[in-house]
Design brief:
It contains ten helices and twelve strands. It has 280 residues and is of the alpha/beta class. The strands form two sheets. It has a seven-stranded parallel β-sheet with strand order 3-2-1-4-5-6-7, sandwiched between helices. The longest helix is centred in the N-terminal third of the chain and has 17 residues.
Length: 280
Amino acid sequence: MYKCLIRLESTREVGHGHLIRCLTLAENMHKKDNWIFEFAIINTNKDIIQKIQSFGFQINSPIKKSDIIEDDEEWILMLVEERFFDCIVFDIRRNYRSSFFKSLKKKGIKIIGIDDPTKKRIYSDLNIYPPVPDAFSLNWEGFKGINKIGWGYTIIRKEFLDKKIIKNPNKTIIISTGGSDPNNLTCLIVESIQELIIKFSYKLVIILGSDYIFQEDLINLLDVQLNYKIYKNISALKFARLIDSSEFGIISFGMTAFEFLARDKPAIHLCISNSHYNSA
């Protein structure tokens, strides 16, 4: 049995995909191998706390909230001393200092990275990646750990791996742009396609995340002739069933892209970075 700390952030700005896949990993490892997991998050809100606690995991947050790297490192080292962890999973896009990782290794802490493009991946004992181009093109000079890259190491919620029920999809297109959609891609997509949706008598299913703040703009944008349905903050199982009943999706690249793939459903990907574009 191992005790593991997961360091991540889940905010409206960075999205909630990191949290979802870490909860999926922790739930599976706890059930299968009886691992104990705790989460370390600086920027918490009520929804995030409730989400993690609903899985039965403990949350650690610093008394003093700081985005300074040195403060973050000091806090993690303190947690390691006080909570006796065996390993740390990093699913966060920040570059900690080499001295920080040397301190962890001196304490015998194993380091695991998830889909990490930053330089700190070099210090990991284990990195796991989906089979995206960036994972193969990164510079691995000085790396002494193990890389696991492939579909078998892509973290996907169990609800999207269950047997599909609906074999004949109806004329439905799904729009899904993540838990927060800070760039409001949802409105961009709707504005771009709703005339065609009306013309060809399709239905539009719009999936909104818990942190989507542009709902009023979206409602004002929707054409009165449009056949549509809006869902907000739905369960993974409900989302999987909606994907099954659709013809295809128009989505932002991220965890949702792999979930559509797991359901064997095509999708058009909107990408907000070169990395996302290459992976899509």
